[in-house]
Amino acid sequence: MIRYLPLVVKNAIRNRRRTALTLVSVATSLCLLGTLMALYRSFFYSETPEYQAHRLIVRNKVSLANPLRLSYLPLIRKVAGVQEATIYQFFAGSYKDDTPSESFARFAVESERLFRIFPEFRLSEEEKYAFLHERTAAIVGIKTARSLNMKLGDRVTLRGDIFPVNVDLIIRGIFQAGTADDESMYFHYDYLNESLRAGERDTVGAFIVRMDGPESANAVIKGIDDQFRNAPLQTKTETEKAFQLSFLAMLGNVKAFLLSICAAVTFTILLVTGNTMAMAVRERTREVGVLKTLGFTPGIILGLLVGEALVLSLTGGLLGMGLAALACAVLRSGPSFGADLSQLAVAPSVIAIGLGISLMIGFISSLIPAFTASRRPILESLRVNN
Question: 59's torsion region: left (phi>0), alpha (psi -120 to 50) or beta?
Fold first, then answer.
């Protein structure tokens, strides 16, 4: 069949308007399908980066909204396998007008331990020194700094809601991590704690732990949670990735949602290509009869018609995967929306699956009309008026 490839390609583009519309439809559908598959893989099956695999989050077993006591921290540090542990206090509230474009994560931490927990944070030694030695200093991720036009030395006021205080900060560093943390701000927990009323101090929303190695995760998780099993405030310890996925779970069954959309997109592509091939075969019924009189066997005719559909679907699939790669690049550079999209990409496995689906759809959609046309008697084909 290779020698008939030029004929297959020529037939595929003979009706250029229909071919262009079909390619656009298939490419758009494959773009959506590829982006959804990339998201699915990134959320549930991507390999955890080494820096993230070393970290655990410790929070209240009941809910993240219920704080833990600051006194838990030294006990957590004594658990076997814990290399470092620190405060990880989310500070809600608002910044300026509190519009979505001005929303970013803010955390109060122990500054002297922060960079041991997050070794991927990159900033100059001068910025790091200024942050460590100034009570009201803060560092901000590069994405937030760019989007909000923050510069070194700028004064920032965060208005609290859960915490009934305002914190006045000075930007002393702009860091880059290559993760969702590039949208975050970090400042001193001691400054926040001292600003609170006496009865509201010494509570922490969560602790973040750095382990000796990922292989210690199960033992460290059990060691921490067992230590507070009979305490008034029990803990729930989980990996950083599991902690991030818990926010996605608030949206519902994300897995089923993504898979159902993928199934709907696949069915839509099948209908589009099926309708296209049925029209193409009907238009060339007489032409098929002529091919038979010239000695083309039903098998060759079947191969020509199916090959035409495969060429169209594969070309649309390649265009769609390219568009999906661009879509993932846009999502990587945009806001994270509670999920770490910094590593989002159309992996080779996603490309292979997408192209496989496009070929499968091209084959299935063309098989019945092509088989019917290839088996139709010559005289019947020649009598059909186009």
Answer: beta
